[in-house]
Amino acid sequence: MATTQDRQLVEQWRSIQSTYFRTAGMIDRALELKFSIGLTEFEILDLVAESADAACRMKQLGERTPMTQSAMSKVVDRLERAGLISRHSCEDDRRSLFLELTDAGRELHRRAAVEHRALLKENLA
Amino acid sequence: MATTQDRQLVEQWRSIQSTYFRTAGMIDRALELKFSIGLTEFEILDLVAESADAACRMKQLGERTPMTQSAMSKVVDRLERAGLISRHSCEDDRRSLFLELTDAGRELHRRAAVEHRALLKENLA
DNA sequence: TGTCATTCAATGACGTGTCATATAAGTTGA
DNA sequence: TCAACTTATATGACACGTCATTGAATGACA
Prior knowledge:
2 copies of one chain form a homodimer.
Chain A (H helix, E strand, L loop, with lengths): L3 H32 L3 H12 L6 H7 L5 H13 L3 E5 L7 E5 L1 H22 L1
Antiparallel strand pairs in A: 1-2
The first copy, chain A, binds a DNA duplex through helix 4.
């Protein structure tokens, strides 16, 4: 029943889980504390920041994160309410939206990224 | 600013994230479908199943999972309602509880573990 | 033994994620 | 050009996790 391989798999899985939770938790709390945004919000900012091209975003962003389409939509809502991002409708296809950082968003991302990278480094060593 | 090391860290992090979400999602859906329990519930069953000794559990279990104390309490609620686990108060320290699988819980765990291990194998290769 | 601090577990308020669905725009083909 | 289908995003109901707090039992110590 419980083969050695099984036990190894479970070990490996728990290790991934705990790394994930520990790291995500630390980053989330730090960002919340210093910048009043959660990890999820930061991750969207980060994706938008790194895609400089002006394609119709929402959709493509969805392909680069494990987040659900509906989760993304809500995160973007919050970022928009916080004045960090703006949605622009896309002339080519008016179903699509593309996203852009506001100045405040760009600035916050710049500062939060430092914290984010530092905590990743600390946790993924 | 964005050093090579930073980019590698972010890459590594996203890889952990996506492995975690993909795997957790698959297992969760499979267990839900076939056994009507979620991954979280299974993980508690699994921990209880593997600690054969009769210590005062709740507390110690908490040390072996990234779950919050309050999350655990609620998961155990659900497992108890489902008739898979029972709480017993501990004579030595009446604040503590220890947990035990019911027969149904043991049986379900046995079958679900097969599925769980198989999906881990498939995803963590 | 009485007080004060600590520990274990449960609970309620709340935020965020998911699923199913809605809305709106685009596409296809008779 | 009109249906039927598909695609992009938003939304509402609901489940689950977190935080802060509570209640109860224990420990420490004067």
